[in-house]
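Checklist before submission:
- one chain only
- standard amino acids only
- sequence pasted in full

Submission:
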Amino acid sequence: MSKKINTKDLIDKIEKITKARIASQEVVSLDQFRETVKKTEPKVILVIEDDETMRASLKRILEPEGYIVKLAAHGNELSEVLDDNTSVDLILLDIGLPWINGFELAELLKDHKDLKKIPLVFISGQATQEDMKKAFLVGAHDYIKKPFDIEKLKKTVKTLLKISNDE
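Returned file contents:
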């Protein structure tokens, strides 16, 4: 028959076991903790597209993949997204915006100290060799022609986010 212990002894034994387990665990630095959290936080994708159907489609495609999708149809919405202190991890940008040329906007984004390192992908119905060449000259990481293959889009986004996260 086992010996009965009082409540105080029980608590003392539990504390002793807990302290021993805590002491045996590896200590994680604050930087390591932050890096781990950064890797597990959902990535934010900014879609700059004037066509409402295309914006909604991109959101519907990317959100089930675990991404947070921010949408901007015009300059005011873009300002709101950039001002809300949400860090953006990838930008999908249309070339044919009515309020600014996508190439001009890309140049402005790449000149911005906080935005220049964010991967940029053009998504456009225009796909001439000249347009593609210009896209890469202004800092695009990829160019996807509309209508696009959904799986190719997902793979491109995932790859660019992994590469930028590893840097």
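Reviewer check: The chain is about 50% helix and 15% strand.
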